[in-house]
Every structure is written in structure tokens, then in C-alpha cells.
Amino acid sequence: MDLEKSLKFRNATSEDLSEEPVDWANTTHQQRKVIWYNQTPGTLTGCNCQLCRNKGVVMYINDDGFEVVKECECMKNRITAGRAMMYIEKSGSKEDIKRMKFTNYITDEPWQRSIKTDIITFVRDFDLDTSAKWLFVGGQPGAGKTHLCTAACMKLISSGHDLRYENWRQIVFNLESKRFESSYEDYMSDILDAEILYIDDLLKQEDKKKIPAELTYAWEIIDGRSRRNKATIISTQWLISQLAEMDPALSGRINHISKIVQVDYQEGRDFRAR
């Protein structure tokens, strides 16, 4: 361990720490106290911080020689994660969310292994500073698209990203109800400016005659986020080719900027119907 950095945490980051042993014989009582405090594990959840050991605070010796405790850099990520989890949990029960992990997605069939691998690769390569931040997962209902997208979201949240979950039906309801109010622009701005937006069940509509009217909302959101260079994850029952029949501009934009993962419609792939 870098002794100097371990004692002056106000300038240290988690990358500054290592597992090398401390030379206790050459440390003062005060230094040992600070090191012991910072190495003692805490109980906070949401991310695994090697700087504060999940306590949320770190201790250091300031320039006047006094021991000082300050908030750890991880707390910003924990607050962000808490807000993101609030959006995710609105979509279903906490138990359902806990179940939606990559490890719990069954891959008995080659197509299951393929889409799981593709989405894990997306998360691994995700970078807000590059173009690798749009994911489109479409096709067969009941194939686990929401499961895998939620698992991807959870991984991104645990990495400190701010993520907003929105179900398409809820988006449409909110926009329709706010259409003639000033809050319409506020809500749309929240949607367009979110660091990462997950749209679940894009253009899901039992009455197919109503889809053309909703395409305007879809384009406003997709185009707006694309122009703002904002990361977006989309799950939907539609294939890109089907979207192209509804709105070539919308499908073209998504296809151009997204990693495309699709599940073709085949009998036996809807596991919710079993």
C-alpha cells in the first residue's frame, strides 16, 4: 500500500490503493489509526468501493497534522445508483428485479447463448465517450429481452452510471396527459437528457391502429437523444425490418447507431406461454 496516499485520502482515489502490506514498524500511532480505520469494512451496498471499504467516509491526516474524516467519492455513485434503482423498481417487484441477472438467464438453446453474449459484450464495451452506447433488443415476445436488458442496466448502475427506466406505455400516457401543459416540456427534457435511458417495450400497443400516432413520440425521443449523443437501451417486440415498414426514418436511425440484437419469431421461443 502507498502509505502517503493511504494517509491523505482527500486526494486519493481507489486506483491509488493496492494490496501491498504496510510497513507497520515505520508508522506512528496516528498513522496506524488512520490506516486501520480506512481498512475496516463497512456495510453500505450498491457498489464495492476499495477506497472506503463500503463505509461511505475516509480518514486522512491534514496539513496541520489532525485526523479528518470526509465523504468518500463513492457516495455520489451510490446516490446515483439509488435513483436509478427507483426507476427500475417501478417496473416490477423487487424480487423480479433481483431475479433478472445474467447468471439467471437460461441458455439451453444457441439463440439464447447468442443474445446473452451480445448483451454482455455491449455492457463490457460500454463507454459514454464513444459511439458504443446504444443497444436495440427486438423480436420474439417472451424470449427474455427485458430480463437481459434489465441485467445490463443493473451492471451499468453498479458501475456508477445514472440510468432512467421508462416503460413505453407509461411514456405515452405521460406525454398524452401533459400534451397541453407546460409540464410536457419538463417531462420530455427529463427523457431526452437522462445519461442512460432504457425504454422497455417500445411501441407496444394492443390496438395496432394507434401505433402511427405513437411513432411521432418515438421519433422525438430517438432523434432527440441521438442528437444529444445520449446512451439508450431499447427492448421491443418489433424487429428492425418491421419498424422499417412503420417508419423508415425511425428504424434507420436506430439501426445506424445501435448494437442490434434480435430474436426471430419461432414457435417455442415464448417462454411465458409455456
Summarize the structure.
Strand 5 (196-200), helix 9 (211-227) and strand 6 (231-236) form a beta-alpha-beta unit.
What's the total number of strands? 7
End-to-end span in angstroms? Answer: 55 Å
Number of discrete helical segments: 11
Which outline best applies? elongated
Please report which band the strand proportion falls in: under 5%, 5-15%, 15-25%, 25-35%, 35-45% or over 45%: 5-15%
Oligomer classification: single chain
Q: How big is the Rg?
A: 23 Å
Order of strands in the sheet with most strands? 4-5-6-3-7
Contiguous low-pLDDT stretches (5 residues minimum) are 8-19
Helix content: 40-55%
Mean pLDDT: 86
Structural class: alpha/beta
The biggest sheet, with number of strands, parallel, antiparallel or mixed sense and barrel status, is: 5 strands, parallel
Following the backbone from N to C, one meets helices and strands in this order, namely HHEEHHHEHEHHEHEHHE
Structure, explained:
- The chain has helices at 3-7, 29-39, 74-89, 94-99, 110-125, 145-158, 168-177, 183-193, 211-227, 240-246, 248-257, and strands spanning 57-61, 67-71, 134-139, 163-167, 196-200, 231-236, 259-263.
- By secondary structure, the protein is of the alpha/beta class.
- The chain has a 5-stranded parallel sheet, sandwiched between helices. Strands 1-2 form a two-stranded antiparallel ribbon.
- The longest helix is centred in the last third of the chain and has 17 residues, at 211-227.
- It is elongated and about 75 Å long.
- The relative contact order is 0.11.
- Mean pLDDT is 86; it is low at 8-19.
